[in-house]
Design goal:
The chain contains three helices and no strands. By secondary structure, it is mainly α. The protein has one domain. Helix 1 runs antiparallel to helix 2 and helix 1 runs parallel beside helix 3.
């Protein structure tokens, strides 16, 4: 869980730097992790981890598309 938190913070800092709102984006990530810090339901924890991982993957895909000029994902 700690590695996911760190990766989310790294991405938040990167996004924030590009958009000139680093404190806001990092604060949002920290707030979400603190909000669910004491969650004990394994299913809920897995869903939260999946959501965070999905957000990171979506950002990586978006950045790749911007760099290459190609669209990798299809919109439904």
């Amino acid at each position: 869980m700690l590695s996911l938190y760190r990766e989310c913070l790294r991405r938040a800092k990167y996004i924030g730097h590009k958009q000139h709102n680093t404190e806001l984006v990092v604060g949002m990530v920290r707030q979400q992790f603190k909000k669910h810090m004491h969650e004990t339901d394994p299913d809920k924890i897995q869903k939260l981890k999946d959501d965070a991982a999905r957000g990171l993957i979506n950002h990586i895909i978006y950045e790749s598309e911007q760099m290459t000029g190609r669209k990798f994902s299809k919109s439904f």
